[in-house]
Amino acid sequence: MRNPVLLLVGVLTLMVATTASAAVVEHTFNVQNLTVTRLCNRQLIVAVNGSFPGPRIRVREGDTLIVHVYNKSPYNLTVHWHGVYQKLSCWADGPNMITQCPILPGNKYTYKFKISGQEGTLWWHAHVSWLRATVHGALIIRPKSGHKYPFPKPHREVTIILGEWWNADVMDVEEEAVTSGGLPNISDAFTINGWPGDLYPCSQNHMYKLKVEPGKTYLLRIVNTALNGQLFYKIANHNLTVFAIDAAYTKPYVTDIIMIAPGQTVDALLVADQDIGSYYMAASPYSTSVGIPYDNNTTRGVVVYDGAPPIGKPLMPTLPAFSDTATAYKFSSSLKGLKDGPHWAQVPKNVDYKMFVTVGLGFTPCEANRTCLGPKGTKLSASMNNQSFVPPKRMSLLQAFYSNVDGIYTTDFPVKPPIEFDYTNATINNYNPAFLFAPKVTKVTKLKFNSTVEMVLQNTAIIGVENHPMHLHGSNFHVLAQGFGNYNPSKHREMFNLVDPQIRNTIGVPAGGWAVIRFTADNPGVWIMHCHLDAHLTYGLGTVFMVENGPTPETTLPLPPVDLPNC
């Protein structure tokens, strides 16, 4: 028999070591107006701590993060920690009127949560209206002390934040679109780390520059923070080796181009293995919408080798056509999860709840005595399973769920669309009144704790064929398969990867196609799933899952924080 004293000493030693490896990381966010100069204009924006993009947060897996948010802006505010699991800390997730009421101007709120079971690149952003255009930043999760990356140690880590810029107040841009029912004005530029690059007016010196040493390896932590722009990203004459997406490790994937949707992140190694010189990095849009305007500009930064001559034009990469779906699909469908790597989760085999969910655009009738700018005098709308989501106004969904308040939501979100049709046939579906008008509702899905959900996300062609980046709060999911056309279970289930599928929190559902995801509802609380094209979320492209408590105190949602904002 083992010596009980020695056993106790071992347990205590392990507890001390575990505690010592975790830390409390504390930040203060002062959110207020800031005047910056871009594209020949001085523009007033909302920013955090006087910087755009906002501050980068660095933590280690297992740390507790505390962020004190002081709202000194003129707008209501919440902050979402995009991709963080928020195990038993749903109150800190941040989406407006889903898990909290907004922080009113002149008020403050403290977010506190533990980061566990995740490593890699995530990010944070405002989750009220279009504020996240300028209120955002990277959230870097490194392995615990003494743990290593499952890839070669880089010489340096570099954050690459891809963004979108308007020569206007983005809140006014959104309000105009909501009021008129038409499309929002497109952005004036894309940016790399806040800078548009030298293809834009007055921007010769407003370009991000990355200095590298020949032969060294750099870990690029790439985040797409754009509101509505899906982007191709490429560095001239260089390959990138992808090792993680959405803070989930992948098998190494070598590519010369990355397609990244709003909300997604990519960790990739760049080796400075070319001739000494200067090489442009560039990002350009991916768009499949026919007849719908989009920002078709290109943003550039530059990679400069030590010893490169100061004079000379950098080499420019060849970028795909804006509508190059083949290149976009090749990248997104080629990634596989790092089976048995750090924090790997096996695919749940048994499915408790199956859903077939259509995602796409539609219309809503124009109010009486109003002139609306949507097609045929209507207002644009968006829906999932012909239900256009509207958040509550009286209290947050989480508060209503936690306190059992009636009249805030209903639990009858449908598991399939009300009618079956040829979902991706634009010729048949365009302006067919049977599919166009979705009711504005606050319908949710209730899930038993630890149940497994399999969801088919089916794009529609009711108004154009688009790639929709769908983001799930509170959990990652396995991407079992994706493809084009209408999903057919008798044929497409054979495509399921149940061994080493990629793990994500945001999936770009292919344009005119579908994706199948699977996740376990093991996190009590209220979690929204929505399109991360902000224009589409504004129009109602979202739904909500309510996960019930588990059987033990360790699987039960705790009391709300005492300083939780009131509505």
Automatic annotation (TrEMBL):
Domain Plastocyanin-like, first and last residues per copy: 31-145, 157-308, 412-549
Keyword Secreted (UniProt): yes
Database matches in PROSITE patterns: MULTICOPPER_OXIDASE1, MULTICOPPER_OXIDASE2
Subcellular localization(s) per the UniProt record: Secreted, Extracellular space, Apoplast
CC cofactor: Cu cation
UniProt EC number: 1.10.3.2
Domain of life assignment: Eukaryota
Signal sequence interval, chain numbering: 1-22
Keywords: Apoplast, Copper, Glycoprotein, Lignin degradation, Metal-binding, Oxidoreductase, Repeat, Secreted, Signal
Classification via InterPro entries: Cu-oxidase-like_N, Cu-oxidase_2nd, Cu-oxidase_C, Cu-oxidase_fam, Cu_oxidase_CS, Cu_oxidase_Cu_BS, Cupredoxin, CuRO_1_LCC
NCBIfam families: laccase
Function per UniProt: Lignin degradation and detoxification of lignin-derived products.
The protein's name in its UniProt record: Laccase
Organism ancestry: Eukaryota, Viridiplantae, Streptophyta, Embryophyta, Tracheophyta
